[in-house]
Design a protein that fits this description.
Rna Polymerase Sigma Factor, Chain: A
Length: 140
């Protein structure tokens, strides 16, 4: 990793005033490194943001396994499209938007395949569903 990148990550530059600004600058340095092919820089971005994205995904999906899938898909998409990230927003904002979209896509897919159990009746009574028998057909 380049020395400038490591200095930004280590926080050795004393001119920074707030912790938020430091995080922003560190993320920007890591994104720049990751764009040049530095796998360690992207790995650090994942470590920094994984917990927040997992918490968001878990709130949206209400399921730990689904949330973990959303996190994995989100970082995969971020990695694939990192070169398109222009830095007009914070990396965390961009990543959060990706995660929200991934969670919504998962929920949409699940909505179409939701199973509803049908109570089976052992007796023929009013609670059983009526059979739709065509006119003229013999009853079973």
């Amino acid at each position: 990793m380049p020395v400038e990148l490591m200095d930004a990550i280590d926080g050795t530059d004393e001119r920074r005033s707030s912790p938020d600004r430091l995080v922003t600058q560190e993320d920007a340095a890591l994104v720049a490194g990751a764009k040049t092919g530095d796998a360690r820089a992207f790995e650090l971005l994942v470590q920094r943001h994984e917990g927040k994205i997992l918490a968001l995904a878990q709130r949206m999906t209400r399921n730990r396994e689904d949330a973990e899938d959303v996190v994995q898909q989100s970082f995969q998409k971020a990695f694939i499209h990192l070169k398109k990230f222009e830095g007009d927003s914070l990396f965390s904002t961009w990543l959060t938007r990706i995660a929200i979209n991934e969670a919504l896509m998962l929920l949409r897919r699940r909505r179409g395949t939701r199973e509803v159990p049908i109570a089976e009746s052992n007796t023929e009574d009013e609670t059983a569903l009526p059979l739709d028998i065509p006119d003229g057909a013999p009853e079973p």
